[in-house]
């Protein structure tokens, strides 16, 4: 009896182990299938979160879902006349009848999902017959007719245009905010690109309302009643492009893309993103247009003999004409960041390496760190080196008691920009780290054409060249090394230097010719103390 009971127990344990393994793989497979085929919750019936079938699916190369950040198909942003974009099955279309709008889903009579361009046929043929109507259909990116535009709300004269501040998109079921707007003319496209944040899966449909009229530079206040009478508008259906952050949170950074087609549209002065055409807009963004940038106009005037009365438009510099300078973007400062000494070390370290400009986003900042940034922003820090290192003397120089030589540097006082970042989404619960992808993308477009290189580095990250004195020299050597490749960016492998590691003994040994206060400061600098792993 005992022997039989022992054998039964062994078989039972073996069977239980096998069952556990099968259950694990079954649960794992179920999770994978749920991620790939899960249908998003939507207010509009029949809309899928994944792009499948038709031209939209083909543009993704058959990729199931979005497991990687959505940067691999950025060319779609510029192929505005490509049928695969206008036939995007996520966008739907607008039906116009008796000058009244009706938004419909792009679903055919046979259950196949069709899109606006495929239905935009003449007469009784084409896709329009599938709906039993012969009325104009307006696909994504095309302008609403003038008769409809006249019935929409006028310019929001009580709202002041803003650049670089979060504003709400009214009338959406889920949170939807916009921050800044840029006119993107790369690759020959004409596109208004709005930086925003909204629902990760199944973002709600929105529209771009372009506002034309007195510009901010002609002395007319955009909020005055006189300016209101001079304003006209145009409206196009927008495309929301989510920037996937791989954290599977409810909200993510996004681009709202609005084509500026010519004819009949010219580049607007302002833009509003709305979810309901009949409702007054809840936001008003100043469009940053590099073609009308005063900085580039001044540079163009210095480098050319333009005649008086020449056109105001001036394209931004390109290629070798872009200044060989480096800018740094830092993700939003949060948790009341107040490490003043670390912040000064970060700024001065990169300034010594040739960085010209820093862009910060202030979510919550402590008083000491805020004071440091304000002094840099106002130019109240010295414009030259106040602390210096000395070159080592040769034995012969030391024997003759020669005076140590000051180590030459490329230091120039950097400029600093601080932008507000009052995004009303819970960090790490609704969106990743205060929506840092929205901040970094805004910084990218904000500094474009002004600096040849842009570095995205956190406050605890230091890029240390081994064989170069500045980052410009480092990048130049890398460009020479990979000159036959189409290199768009460089990623540097990191190494951790933990604070609990022992300090470098030279950091507290003082500086020859220096004073005790300078020695104490150096002894507290992370880049001086933590040099070994």
Tell me what the structure shows:
The chain is of the alpha+beta class. Among the domains are: 142-214 and 230-295, no CATH class; 319-494, no CATH class. It has 14 helices and 16 strands. It has helices spanning 2-37, 54-59, 83-86, 116-119, 146-149, 225-230, 294-303, 340-352, 367-377, 395-399, 436-447, 471-481, 516-523, 526-529, and strands at 93-97, 100-104, 137-138, 167-168, 177-184, 191-199, 207-212, 232-237, 239-242, 251-259, 270-274, 285-288, 326-329, 355-362, 415-420, 453-456. The strands form 3 sheets. Strands 4, 5, 6, 7, 8, 9, 10, 11 and 12 form a 9-stranded mixed β-sheet that branches. A 4-stranded parallel β-sheet has the order 15-14-13-16, with helices on both faces. Strands 2-1-3 form a 3-stranded antiparallel β-sheet. Helix 8 (340-352) packs parallel to helix 9. The longest helix has 36 residues, at 2-37. 27% of the residues are buried. Mean pLDDT is 76; it is low at 39-74, 80-93, 105-136 and 305-312.
Shape: globular
Unreliable stretches: 39-74, 80-93, 105-136, 305-312
Could you tell me the number of beta strands?
Answer: 16
- H/I helix tally: 14
Strand content: 15-25%
Radius of gyration: 29 Å
The pLDDT mean sits at 76
Order of helices and strands: HHHEEHEHEEEEHEEEEEHEHEHHEHEHHH
The biggest beta sheet reads: 9 strands, mixed
The rounded distance between the terminal residues' Cα atoms is 63 Å
Report the structural category: alpha+beta
Helix content percent band: 25-40%
Region (Disordered): 296-320
EC number: 2.4.1.-
Main location: membrane
Transmembrane segments: 16-39
């Amino acid at each position: 009896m005992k022997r039989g009971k022992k054998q039964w127990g062994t078989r039972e344990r073996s069977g239980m182990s096998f069952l556990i393994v099968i259950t694990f793989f079954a649960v794992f497979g179920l999770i994978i299938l749920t991620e790939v085929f899960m249908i998003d919750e939507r207010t509009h019936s029949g809309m899928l979160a994944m792009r499948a079938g038709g031209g939209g699916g083909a543009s993704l190369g058959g990729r199931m879902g979005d497991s990687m950040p959505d940067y691999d198909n950025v060319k779609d942003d510029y192929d505005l006349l490509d049928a695969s974009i206008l036939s995007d099955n996520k966008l739907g279309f607008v039906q116009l009848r008796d000058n009244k709008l009706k938004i419909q889903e792009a679903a055919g009579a046979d259950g196949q999902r069709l899109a606006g361009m495929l239905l935009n046929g003449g007469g009784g043929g084409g896709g329009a017959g599938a709906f039993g109507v012969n009325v104009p259909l307006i696909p994504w990116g095309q302008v609403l007719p003038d008769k409809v535009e006249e019935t929409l709300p006028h310019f929001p004269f009580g709202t002041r245009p803003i650049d670089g501040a979060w504003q709400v998109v009214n009338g959406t079921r889920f949170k939807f905010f916009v921050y800044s707007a840029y006119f993107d003319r790369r690759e020959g496209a004409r596109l208004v690109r709005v930086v925003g944040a909204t629902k990760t899966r199944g973002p709600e449909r929105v529209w771009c309302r372009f506002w034309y009229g007195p510009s901010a530079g002609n002395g007319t206040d955009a909020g005055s009643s006189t300016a209101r009478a001079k304003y006209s508008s145009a409206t196009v259906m927008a495309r929301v492009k989510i920037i996937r952050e791989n954290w599977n949170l409810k909200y993510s950074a996004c681009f709202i893309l609005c084509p500026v087609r010519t004819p009949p549209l010219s580049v607007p002065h302002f833009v509003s993103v709305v979810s309901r055409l009949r409702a007054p807009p809840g936001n008003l963004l100043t469009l940053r247009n590099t073609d009308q940038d005063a900085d580039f106009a001044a540079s163009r005037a210095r480098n050319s003999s333009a005649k008086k009365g020449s056109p105001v438009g001036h394209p931004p510099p390109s290629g070798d004409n872009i200044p060989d300078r480096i800018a740094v973007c830092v993700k939003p400062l949060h948790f009341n960041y107040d490490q003043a000494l670390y912040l000064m070390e970060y700024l001065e370290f990169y300034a010594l390496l040739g960085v010209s400009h820093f862009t910060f986003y202030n979510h919550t900042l402590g008083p000491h760190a805020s004071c440091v940034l304000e002094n840099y922003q106002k130019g109240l820090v010295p414009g030259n080196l106040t602390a210096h290192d000395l070159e080592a003397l040769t034995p012969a120089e030391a024997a003759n008691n020669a005076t140590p030589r000051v180590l030459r540097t490329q230091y120039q006082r950097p400029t600093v920009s601080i932008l507000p970042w009052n995004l009303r989404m819970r960090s790490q619960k609704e969106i990743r780290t205060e929506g840092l992808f929205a901040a970094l993308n805004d910084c990218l477009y904000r500094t474009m054409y002004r600096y040849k290189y842009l570095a995205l580095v956190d406050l605890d990250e230091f890029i240390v060249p081994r064989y170069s004195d500045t980052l410009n020299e480092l990048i130049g050597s890398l460009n020479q090394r990979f000159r036959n490749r189409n290199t768009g960016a460089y990623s540097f492998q990191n190494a951790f230097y933990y604070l609990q590691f022992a300090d470098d003994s030279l950091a507290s040994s003082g500086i020859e010719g220096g004073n005790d206060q300078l020695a104490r400061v150096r002894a507290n600098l992370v880049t001086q103390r933590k040099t070994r792993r």
